[in-house]
Design goal:
Elements: H1 6-15, H2 26-31, H3 35-40, H4 54-77, H5 82-99, H6 106-115, H7 117-122, H8 124-133, H9 137-146, H10 160-166, H11 170-178, E1 191-196, E2 199-204
Antiparallel strand pairs: 1-2
Helix pairs in contact: 4-5, 6-9, 8-9
């Protein structure tokens, strides 16, 4: 894969930069930053014993930190070819924003909010999840600073684990309360309605919050 060999990728782009088909290389690379790829990649945070395996957790964070670096590397490399640079951002950058993995590098997250405000705002929850996993307080502060409303953190759809993580950051909670969160709804249990023939059964979801 070209994404695993940045030097080869740069060489290919340098040799064939004038060809229209060159930008076709970006789409499969962008998929390597996708939410699907992020979830499929072995994630020690999904292991209930991850806290006892700091090496795996560190390895996971370093992997994404290094992969996200390529976004900036190629952006600089393509400065002399604005069309290719634009296509690189449209594909790989947007994919890394949508999945949240760009939060592994705070300076790039800052740029994402500046250059792609709509996409970044829409992906705020995924950005927070990645920032939390990388234990990157700087990225979380950037998310809080740029948060305009709570729509991307819908309380009625958030998993309890995500809410627990959010509650660890008072500044984020305060911003969410200021922009739309209902404080009375944070601890509200979800209700699920099941139909059994003509009968409806209501079940309340337990919460440890």
């Amino acid at each position: 894969m070209l994404i695993e060999n940045p030097k080869v990728l740069k060489k290919v782009l340098q040799e064939f930069s004038e060809r229209k088909e060159t930008s076709d290389l970006f789409e499969p690379i962008a998929q390597r930053y996708s939410e699907k790829e992020y979830k499929q990649f072995q994630d020690p945070f999904h292991d209930p014993y991850y806290s006892f395996n700091k090496a795996e957790t560190q390895k996971f964070s370093e992997f994404w930190y290094n992969r996200v670096e390529l976004l900036s590397e190629l952006d600089k490399f393509l400065q002399k070819n604005p069309e290719l640079q634009k296509e690189w951002k449209r594909t790989a950058w947007i994919s890394a924003i949508s999945s949240g993995v760009i939060a592994y590098r705070p300076p790039l997250l800052e740029r994402a909010f500046r250059e792609f405000p709509m996409e970044s705002a829409k992906s705020a929850l995924n950005l927070f999840v990645a920032a939390y996993k990388s234990q990157n307080r700087q990225s979380i502060d950037i998310i809080v600073k740029n948060l305009k409303d709570a729509d991307s953190f819908p309380l009625d759809q958030l998993h309890e684990t995500n809410i627990q993580h959010i509650l660890k950051y008072p500044d984020l909670v305060e911003k969410l309360l200021q922009t739309g969160w209902d404080p009375n709804h944070i601890l509200k249990r979800k209700e699920w309605i099941y139909k059994l023939g003509n009968q409806e059964i209501t079940v309340k979801e337990e919460t440890s919050l």
